[in-house]
Design brief:
Layout (H helix, E strand, L loop, with lengths): L23 H19 L8 H14 L2 H12 L2 H6 L4 H9 L4 H5 L10 H8 L5 H19 L7 H92 L5 H4 L3 H9 L2 H4 L31 E7 L5 E6 L5 E6 L4 E5 L4 E5 L7 E7 L2 E6 L3 E6 L43 E6 L5 E7 L2 E6 L3 E6 L4 E7 H12 L20 E7 L2 E6 L4 E5 L4 E6 L6 E6 L3 E6 L3 E6 L5 E6 L6 E4 L3 E5 L5 E5 L4 E5 L1 H7 L7 E7 L2 E6 L3 E6 L1
Antiparallel strand pairs: 1-28, 2-3, 3-4, 4-5, 6-7, 7-8, 8-9, 10-11, 11-12, 12-13, 14-15, 15-16, 16-17, 18-19, 19-20, 20-21, 22-23, 23-24, 24-25, 26-27, 27-28
């Protein structure tokens, strides 16, 4: 810096004297001379000789000849204007300016503002009380009001006119500020709309990414199950080989060992004939069924809006009689009056295969993990292991060794459905249960216990490990016994007074949990059984029509009936907790943690939100009505974790986010 150079520094002792031009008197005299010279030169009566001008210039040259002045002028000439200005700033001001300094690169990349108003104008319009004009206006208005109250002016006075003009200008200014604020609010709304649109597009992209991840997850799940089944088969072969080798090494028995003693004969005759002489139709095969639980659960449907249609499948040519699925985007099984049972991949919307074995239509079925139970009008119950299906989610057909598969699992939903390969479900049948003498109308299993209801007016409990019936419950006899033991007549069989246009089943619905059984019958009664004693310990009276559906959890029991009502019972007290009704008979119902979904003779599924206590409709009837078309009546509904599937009379099955 020039200030630190001792040779170029301006010495104070040479310039602060009385004769110096930098002293107050010198500056005053110099300015007086300059102004006098300028007035002398410019004025009309200027001296033609120019004595004043020459005297002033001689004085300036005299001052400039001093060494101190010359050094100061040279120092000033070598100093930049920035240094001159900066030398007058204090340390704190220099630091503040350094922090607020913006480089040219940032100033060049400033975005273009679409707003017509500057930031200062927006600040003035938003906070008028913080600006100088706003403060003056507020003080002026308050002072003017006081003056008007104390000394009212006459309307014809100039002072009053001036005051009115000022008031008009202030009001116009305020109106202008309001207009600025209004335009700013409109600009903010447009900006928010743009952000929402951008976020919506980002959400769609992430949803597509999540769908791809869940497809990859489903493929991995399928590969894991396939690998585990091959490991089990290999282990079975190894164990069989070891047992054969051990049998070869064991010495043969003597003839005396082959003789049957009287004790062995008595023991043989004392054993049950069902254990010693099994029938091929009522016993399980050598292959034990094994439950395979999914290791991951899909969550894609949770991010859809309620009422969003995920998929629609033309499943059958006739109306759907029963359907169920394991998990969202998992495996679905449908049955129809066309005497077919189809297994579907909900993730791809593709038919995996047909289940063959029943000789009549299936009226009841349940899917639990990989195990399927079906009850038919041929009075038999069949169990299936869906994990043994020969199905490639990526689309390659069963029996093909080439790698040129065409991605059949992810085909265009508008294309015609692809027929499943022959024999894809050949290894799925486990065993058949035969004891009923009339069609199966309801069934439910949990673990190794299955309970079925039939039109022969009996309930049967089955042991799925041994594959046989262990208990038969006569509904009419149990109702009579309950009425005698209770003494009130509530448990007796009573004919409903409401005539039903829909054909009702004697056993409309049932559910089992360990030793507890709930059963709804055609007399409108809901009976709670104890399977350990085979007795009815409570009867719930309330419905005036046949019970068609029921489900319970640890606190409540929900029932649906042809009397058009849904009733929620408190299992602890046996009383009605809540009830509501629809315009048509209820044919199907199911609930999850939040919603109760039912089919009530309409082209939509009726949804009751337990959290918000509101009713709303979900289904094709809502979308078809907007398009001017009509949809078929919904007959059956199933819901799990907000994922709803519904089967209609025209054979179409829809999947919805609920």
């Amino acid at each position: 810096m020039a200030d630190s150079d001792p040779n170029n520094a301006i010495h104070d002792d040479a310039s602060v004297g009385e004769d110096s031009i930098f002293s107050p008197r010198g500056i005053e005299a110099f300015s007086r001379k300059v102004s006098t010279t300028a007035s002398h030169l410019v004025g009309p009566g200027s001296d033609p000789g120019g004595n004043h001008y020459h005297n002033a210039m001689a004085q300036v040259h005299k001052q400039l000849k001093k060494p101190g002045i010359q050094r100061g002028m040279f120092t000033m000439a070598r100093t930049t204007p920035t240094d001159l200005v900066r030398s007058k700033f204090s340390t704190s001001e220099i630091q503040s300016r350094a922090l607020s300094y913006l480089p040219d690169e940032m100033l060049q990349n400033l975005p273009d503002a679409d707003n017509a108003y500057s930031l200062f104008q927006g600040f003035q319009a938003t906070f008028p009380e913080l600006t100088t004009e706003g403060k003056k206006h507020r003080r002026r208005v308050s002072r003017g009001r006081k003056m008007l109250e104390e000394n009212p002016a006459t309307p014809d006075s100039p002072h009053h006119l001036h005051k009115l003009k000022k008031e008009r200008s202030s009001l116009m200014h305020e109106l202008e500020m309001l207009s600025i604020r209004k335009n700013m609010a409109s600009s903010e709304i447009h900006e928010i709309d743009n952000k929402i649109a951008n976020l919506a597009s980002m959400r769609r992209i992430i949803l597509d990414r999540l769908a791809g991840l869940e497809q990859e997850e489903a493929l991995l799940e399928h590969d894991i199950v396939d690998t585990e089944s091959r490991i089990e088969d290999s282990q079975a072969l190894v164990d069989e080989a070891e047992s054969i080798a051990a049998a070869v090494d064991t010495p043969s028995k003597s003839d005396d060992d082959d003789l049957i003693t009287d004790q062995d004969a008595d023991e043989f005759m004392s054993k049950s004939v069902y254990e010693k002489l099994p029938s091929a139709s009522s016993t399980p095969s050598k292959r034990r069924h094994k439950t395979t639980k999914r290791k991951s659960m899909p969550i894609l449907h949770e991010h859809f809006e309620p009422g969003f249609m995920i998929r629609e499948i033309k499943a059958h040519a006739d109306h759907v009689t029963a359907l169920d699925f394991d998990v969202p985007f998992g495996t679905m099984v449908t049955a129809s009056m066309d005497d077919t049972i189809k297994v579907w991949d909900l993730n791809a919307g593709r038919c995996i295969g047909f289940l063959e074995g029943h000789t009549a239509s299936v009226r009841a079925l349940q899917v639990e993990d990989n195990i399927l139970a079906t009850g038919s009008m041929d009075a038999t119950i069949r169990l299936w292991d869906l994990s043994r299906a020969h199905y490639d989610p990526q689309g390659s057909q069963f029996g093909r060794d080439d790698e040129d598969d065409d991605g059949m699992a992810f085909e265009n939903p508008d294309d015609q459905p692809v027929d499943p390969p022959d024999g894809s479900m050949a290894d799925c049948p486990l065993f058949t249960l035969e004891s009923h003498v009339d069609e199966i109308t309801a069934l439910h299993f949990r673990g190794d216990v299955l309970v079925s209801g039939s039109a022969d007016k009996t309930l049967r409990q089955w042991d799925l490990v041994k594959g046989r019936c262990v208990q038969t419950l006569d509904v009419m006899w149990a109702a009579a016994q309950a009425s005698v033991s209770i003494g009130t007549g509530e448990g007796t069989w009573r004919q409903t007074s409401r005539p039903s246009a829909v054909t009702s089943d004697f056993v409309g619905a049932l559910q089992v949990f360990e030793s507890a059984l709930a059963c709804g019958t055609a007399d409108g009664m809901v009976r709670l059984w104890d399977l350990r004693s085979g007795q009815v310990h409570r009867s719930l009276v309330g419905h005036t029509g046949p019970v068609t559906c029921l489900q319970f959890d640890d606190v409540h029991l929900v029932t649906g009936s042809l009397d058009r009502s849904i009733r929620i019972w408190d299992l602890r007290t046996g009383s009605i907790f809540d009830a509501y009704a629809y315009d048509n008979p209820v044919t199907s119902m199911m609930f999850d943690s939040r919603r109760i979904v039912s089919a009530a003779g309409e082209d939509v599924a009726k949804v009751y939100d337990k959290m918000e206590s509101r009713q709303w409709d979900c289904g094709a009837g809502m979308t078809e009505e907007d398009a001017g078309r009509t949809s078929a009546i919904v007959e059956h509904v199933r819901i799990k974790d907000g994922y709803l599937i519904e089967g209609r009379r025209d054979g179409v099955v829809g999947a919805w986010a609920c």
